[in-house]
Specification:
Blueprint (H helix, E strand, L loop, with lengths): L2 H36 L6 H26 L7 H17 L4 H26 L3 H19 L5 E3 L5 H8 L1 E2 L2 E2 H19 L1 H11 L1 H6 L4 H27 L1 E3 L7 H12 L10 H20 L4 H22 L4 H6 L2
Antiparallel strand pairs: 1-4, 2-3
Helix pairs in contact: 1-8, 1-12, 2-7, 2-8, 2-10, 2-11, 2-12, 3-4, 3-5, 3-10, 4-5, 4-10, 6-10, 7-8, 11-12, 11-13
InterPro entries: ABC_transp_permease
Main location: membrane
Subcellular location: Cell membrane
């Protein structure tokens, strides 16, 4: 199969997805106006900057998850890869290691997690849900008893260059937002302008057909999970620079579910083969706005979970309505 024919599923999916992206964007704008009118402090500059930083972190993580989900996978270990690798970087910097050495060590840890996930899923053929759930628990446990000194790893004073990534601004725009934009451009170019990106769409659209046409599906799976972990590592660096520390207890939070919510809400279907970086952007904007509004309203965490669950269910129903089953997806068993 030629590159042009391989790319058709991705292009077709993105064209069909446009309506969902517009719907999500309109809901975001409406929700923002509603919160600005009804919630004191929502439309203040300080809150908008705080919200933009949180949306940036969520968006960066969702870019990595989006690559995996387009390939019809799921990575529940992404937050573990983010927290552990970034905590190792912080701890090594605090121990006197040069920043480049610490960054390479953290990158190696994140990459190892992604490669291990991909190898197990692709070659041993254990479902992604169980593989990544188990690997996340395993890596965090091993890190806690071997290399990490505590739950929180701090970045010592004097590392202003590193902290600038999370706390600085470029022409008034917070650096986390700049990092998100740059990574979004890179992921978009990879998915839409390279053979590997077209192969990812073909893999998610129909793995058996992709294999028969000569696409190296198993190495491609390893690539997808490696990208997810490495992007998670970058999100961890930004988060650590924002807070001058990395709290590994974030692994026990609902952040991974927020990431999945962004991906699905934006229109990257869990059955694979459809979606784009624009899906991540609009999904992150809506979820970031919603979470920020609920925090200002001081809603109980259980009520927040109920609302997020309802939003996720609505996103799945919307995706099913906009992309009904046809003969092609029926043959795939979707």
């Amino acid at each position: 199969m030629t590159d042009a024919s391989v790319s058709k599923p991705g292009r077709r999916r993105k064209d069909n997805l446009f309506s969902q992206e517009v719907i999500v964007l309109l809901v975001t704008l409406g929700l923002g106006v509603l919160f600005a009118v009804t919630l004191p402090g929502f439309a203040t500059l300080g809150n908008l900057l705080t919200m933009s930083n949180s949306v940036a972190i969520l968006g960066i993580l969702s870019l990595g998850m989006g690559v995996v989900v387009i390939g019809r996978g799921l990575d529940l270990s992404q937050i573990t890869a983010m927290a552990v690798s970034a905590a190792i970087v912080c701890q090594m910097i605090g121990s006197g290691f040069a920043i480049p050495v610490a960054l390479l060590a953290g990158l190696a840890v994140a990459l190892a997690i992604g490669i291990a996930n991909g190898l197990i899923i692709a070659f041993i053929e254990i479902p992604a849900l169980f593989t990544t759930l188990a690997s996340g628990l395993l890596v965090y446990g091993l890190a806690r008893i071997t290399v990490l000194d505590g739950f929180i790893s701090y970045i010592p004073n004097g590392n202003d260059g590193f902290l600038f990534v999370g706390q600085g601004r470029f022409f008034g725009v917070p650096m986390p937002v700049i990092v998100f934009i740059l990574l979004a451009i890179l992921v978009h170019l990879m998915l839409s302008r390279t053979s590997v990106g077209r192969f990812v769409y073909a893999h998610g659209d129909n793995a058996d057909t992709a294999r028969l046409t000569g696409i190296p599906v198993r190495p491609l799976t390893v690539f997808e999970y490696s990208v997810c972990s490495v992007i998670g590592f970058l999100a961890g660096l930004v988060m650590a620079a924002m807070n001058a520390s990395m709290n590994t207890q974030v692994i026990n939070s609902t952040l991974i579910f927020d990431v999945i919510l962004v991906v699905v809400l934006g229109g990257i279907s869990l059955v694979g083969g459809r979606g784009s970086v624009l899906s991540v952007i609009v999904g992150a904007a809506l979820i970031g706005t919603l979470l920020n509004g609920m925090i200002i309203m001081n809603l109980d965490s259980n009520l927040q979970s109920i609302i997020k669950g309802l939003v996720l269910l609505g996103a799945i129903l919307l995706d099913n309505f906009l992309h009904p089953r046809d003969e092609e997806t029926a043959r795939q068993g979707d």
